[in-house]
Batch of 3 targets.
Target 1
Amino acid sequence: METNLFINYLTLTDRYKTINNWTDDTQQIIEAHGTFLKTLGEEGVLIFAGRTLLQPNHKNLFGIAVIKASSLDAAKQIFGKDPAIKAHIQQSLVLPFSMGIHYFDNLKE
């Protein structure tokens, strides 16, 4: 059986590319975003997630999350529940994804 994978390419909306626009509420929503992704992992939906380690105003700042879902529409619905997306802190592009080569065991020390 083939696993349907989908990648979510996340970027900050223009407002949040300026660090002065970040508030305590913004930070709490970003923390909720992390909790949301962690929960997807615990539910067996999330494969992996991460981000570039750059400042909010850097043109190459982005995050990705890869999930299993039954369809592109289902993946969009799942990612649409992300608190950072709902609050318009991040914008999302969800696309079908194929994991061709992986060496996850290389992450072990």
Note: The first helix runs from residue 24 to 42.
Target 2
Amino acid sequence: MKKYYVYMVRCADEYIYVGITNNLERRIIEHKRGLNKSCFTFRRRPLELIFYQDFNDIGQAISFEKKIKKWSRTKKQALADGNFDLLEIYSECRNATHYKYKPKS
């Protein structure tokens, strides 16, 4: 069965890059060596792998990657650290228009 990996690397400028691959070891080596000058991470090296999760279904992997790409850096870091309490806090809506903040009539 083929495996797919969603991964996060921390760049030298503290940016957290999210990617997907079917060969994690090879892909991290490619990032670190900077084999492709047009790659987003090329000028942000050195890189450090901080998180990965494997999937058996490519659709689930793509969906998860798209989801976490939209997250803030602090929320991504909470996931990488395995700090699920903090991740839950960062996931809460803090918008003033959110139903939690509307006065009850």
Note: The two ends are 56 Å apart (CA to CA).
Target 3
Amino acid sequence: MWLSEPAESVQVVEQGPLRVTLELKRRILNSDYTQRISLRYNSRQLDFSTDIDWRERHILLKVAFPVEVLTPQATYEIQWGNVQRPTHRNTSWDWARFETCAQKWVDLSEGNYGVSLLNDCKYGHDVQENTMRISLLRSPTSPDPEADQGQHRFAYSLLPHSGGWNETTIAHAYGFNDPLIATSGDRFSKSSSKASELASLFTFDQPSMVIETVKRAEDGDGIIIRMYESQRRRGPVTLTTGFPLKTAWRTNLLEVNDSAVDVGSDGKSLSLQVRPFEIITLRLLPA
């Protein structure tokens, strides 16, 4: 095992009212990299952005975060759900599962505190005891002798939180992977009459519901909205739209209508019964 060499330079490259960024230039073996560590105003999330010129072969690069959390299980996000794996190595089965796939986040939580590790493009994770690690580069030579060689850019974040992971972790992970795009202009300024018309397109009364996809129907008939229950909770939920509805249907993943969904008396709400981790697809026809 090799560790990074001491930093060649450390400097503050950004110090504004909304964000402070520290830049470190370091080297590991034959590879130089620059890392920027950022903390935003009024945020608990610590962001790490790395640019590296990778020149190794048969070397696995990992980043590790030892955290002060005591728990026998770690939670890994998968598509439209999550899985739990032990943090110990008590059996041969545990040893065999030395790495677990996760999409946008992995979490360690004890009774009233936890830490989520977010990422934007790296999916191999391992958690042993209280150390969380992400596999960043692998550099094999077969079948491609030049695999992973050259310039790379990736980012990950550390997010401490109170209690266990919940919709806050999920929201931060989505925001980290798909950040808001800001543009200049006064189209929706406070003096504009359009500002009062801004509203959410869809909202749920249960925070465990996550809207994954909003798109036009493939056949052009209405709007498709796909969502899932993220926290293994069963029960009723209400979806409210920002526009009046004519009709609504539950469909399958191929967007074939299955059953009609009654529109509420306000013309903008739908009541649904959901099961743990259930994926729901709706076809909505605006009035």
Note: Helices lie at 92-96, 167-177.
